[in-house]
Amino acid sequence: MITFPETAAAAPAGGRRARLRRAAAQVLLTNWTGAATVPSRALYPHQWSWDSAFVALGLRHISPRRAQRELETLLGAQWGDGRVPHIVFNPAVPAGAYFPGPDFWRSAAAGRGAGAPPAVHTSGIVQPPVHALAAWQVHLADPAESRRRGFLPRLYPRLAAWHRYLAGARDLAGGGLAAVVHPWEPGLDNSPVWDAALARVEPAPPGSFTRTDLDHSPAADRPTDLDYARYVRLATSYRDHAYDDARTPHGFAVEDPCFNALLIASEHALASIARAVGADPGVHLRRAEAATAALVDRLWDPAGGVFLARDLATGAPIPGYSVSGLVPLIVPGLPADVAAGLVRTLHGPRFGLGRVHLVPSYDLTAAQFDGNRYWRGPSWFNTAWLIHRGLVRHGEHEAAGRLREQTLTAAHRSRFAEYLEPYTGDGRGIRNFSWTAALALDLLHTHAGEGPAR
């Protein structure tokens, strides 16, 4: 049994709550560039896509206008085909500070046919679509300021184009779900779920690239060199095929449950945005309903009580219990029996909710579990936030309240670590990580076991 140094009853409150708020706000202030928030000044010195959505969710509690700016900056780098790139590069950062940098992606040239912006350097792949969900919550934080600045009318067409891209060009199997074409796209970079699909990818030659991540984090916490060589090969192939989804011979193509669950939740948010700007919400609600049916039909494993990713190269579900398979708890309208199965799995031995720290990223009982190595087992704050939201949605208020208090305590105690070892609760990766601070701020404004305070 894991014991926690601070129980729910002793979690940050009063003076500790105020200290946590100040410390989290200071992280976001330190990581602010003037237009956007970097995940970390050291390891991640540019703007990341889903990071910025999570950052905006926290920023709305201390500066709604800056939260709006966060999303506006990201969407200002959107491509003509609708994709929102996973990195927007800061030209003030030295070229060698991060790999793969703008010289690798060559977005303006290689992505010209897909409408890459000519004056802003970006990557060519994407990340999970949390943006409409974040935009709607940012609007609700200060509707008067949002209306004064025309925030939603300006963002709505961009968000709608982003969703059209995912529902169209990325429905590679024609089954109604968006596919990811690189392990960085679903955000769970080196999850054991990807091992078999990645094993088919020929690695980039040794010496053809230089990793910079190991300058900031121990090798034992990061993806292996072989993983990285395969990541580079996949990104190179996509770039050399002009980031054309139809023409690229994708060595990795997967329907991921977390990615699609976030797209569905964001379609519901986009319907709310559409109503607010006088547009038709029906297209978003119909797409959300169809995608929910496809998610359950294609990815739900009733025997395992979890959603499984589907490998489009084989057409088969990928075995393995990942936190990605639990995130669909956030989906509005998820069938009750499916939600109940997810809750049972979450509390069971594979994820041990309440018996370990937060929610591990991979099955605690599996041979591949590694509590220190990136997405092969550690607990992450963003997935804890998503699962908290899902538990609230499905009436699991007691479990949600406990997870909320654990998350607040762990964020403060770990100095806003990137992620945690789930058994010990030790902070791993980078400290003063932006989404950890931002989501702690959001949970501070959420009553225990309830949704966001209004």
UniProtKB/TrEMBL annotation:
One family name in Pfam for this protein: MGH1-like_GH
UniProt domain Mannosylglycerate hydrolase MGH1-like glycoside hydrolase: residue ranges: 44-436
Alphabetical keyword list: Glycosidase, Hydrolase
Protein's UniProt keywords contain Glycoprotein: no
InterPro entries, sorted: 6-hairpin_glycosidase_sf, 6hp_glycosidase-like_sf, Glycoside_hydrolase_63, MGH1-like_GH
Residues spanning the membrane: none
SUPFAM superfamilies xref list: Six-hairpin glycosidases
Similarity annotation: Belongs to the glycosyl hydrolase 63 family.
Name of the protein described by the UniProt record: Mannosylglycerate hydrolase MGH1-like glycoside hydrolase domain-containing protein
Species this chain originates from: Sphaerisporangium dianthi
